[in-house]
Amino acid sequence: MLNNVATQWIIRRIPEFSGIIITLITFYNSMPPEHRQFVTDVLSGQGGGLTIGAAIGFALWVYAQVVSYRSTVKPKEVAKVDGKAIEVTAPRKSLWDILKGK
What we know:
Strands 1-2 form a two-stranded antiparallel sheet. Strand 1 (77-81) and strand 2 form a beta hairpin. It is mainly alpha-helical. The chain is flat, with a radius of gyration of 21 Å. The longest helix has 25 residues, at 5-29. Helices cover 63% and strands 10% of the residues.
C-alpha cells in the first residue's frame, strides 16, 4: 500500500496540512472575542443576523494583520548619514497600488 503513488502523495501532504490547520487554529485563538464570534457565526451559517459594524470591524482587523505582516517581511534599507545608520523607507503605497501589483 505504501508503494502507491497516491498514498505517498497523501503522506507527504500530512505535515503541510497539519501546519496549515495549526496556523489557522492559532490565528483564530489570537483574535479578539467579538471577531472570533463573527467568524463562528459566519462559518455556522448564521451570518445573516450579523451587523455591518461587525463585518467592517473584522475586515479592518484582517487588513491591519496584512499590513503588519507586510511591514515585517519588507526588506529594510539602512543608510549612513553623518556617521549614523538610519532606516530609509520607501514611500507608502496605497491599497489600490498593492492590489494592482505596482
